[in-house]
Amino acid sequence: MRPLYRSFAVRAVFQAVVRRIIVIATAAAALFPQAAQAVTLDPLKPCYRSVDEVTTENVHVAAGGFSPDSPVDVSIDGAVVADDVFTNKDGFVSGDVKAPFRATGERAFTLTVTEPDKPVNTVSYTSRVTALAMRLKPRKAKPSKKVRFIGRGFTDNGATMVYAHYVRAGKLRKTVALGAPEGPCGTIDGKHRQIPISKPKTGRWTLQVDNQAVYSPQPAGVFVRLAITVRRVLRAQPRR
Questions:
Q1: Residue 191 and which of 10, 215, 228, 237 are 20 to 30 A apart at CA?
Q2: pTM surpassing 0.85?
């Protein structure tokens, strides 16, 4: 049987080693402080509308984790769109910028928030932008003929349907549903009668397309208006 003092001696050596490891670990922690909190950016909407070069939908930017009271740059696809922005005392920034202009169709874009004095503090998010548009194909057809209604950008407040309102002489004549908007940018593509009214009167008609089931000459959301002219077709007289 081993003397007890040898066990105590081994234990004392072991405790000394443990204490040394703890001291070394503490010193290492002082040399390498914890990493800074990662910057964050709230998710963007799936899609934004572009009406024209002046009128585009706002993109709300809410980001955090930056240095307190520091300047940040907001960029879209690498181009700075806001450089006079400062974080608050908590390193948070909030505001709006314009979605990029899109004349036709839709595309993806990337929004980035960067702290120029500390480039490691950078965060990005990708969304889409679409031109607000509606067209009939073919453009000229008999009122009773089915034509393609092709549109995009009808995404007001999570709308589940797109409506066509037929107006003549300032009065609503009929409203029909064109279908549910599809995809993140609210596209529709379907065939419908150009004017779903039996024997429509000649003259100028206005087709207003929006996301509202009830017609309003000044809808709360986005809309597109098209002019349709109904003309009387003169039939050739038979020869005698």
A1: 215
A2: no
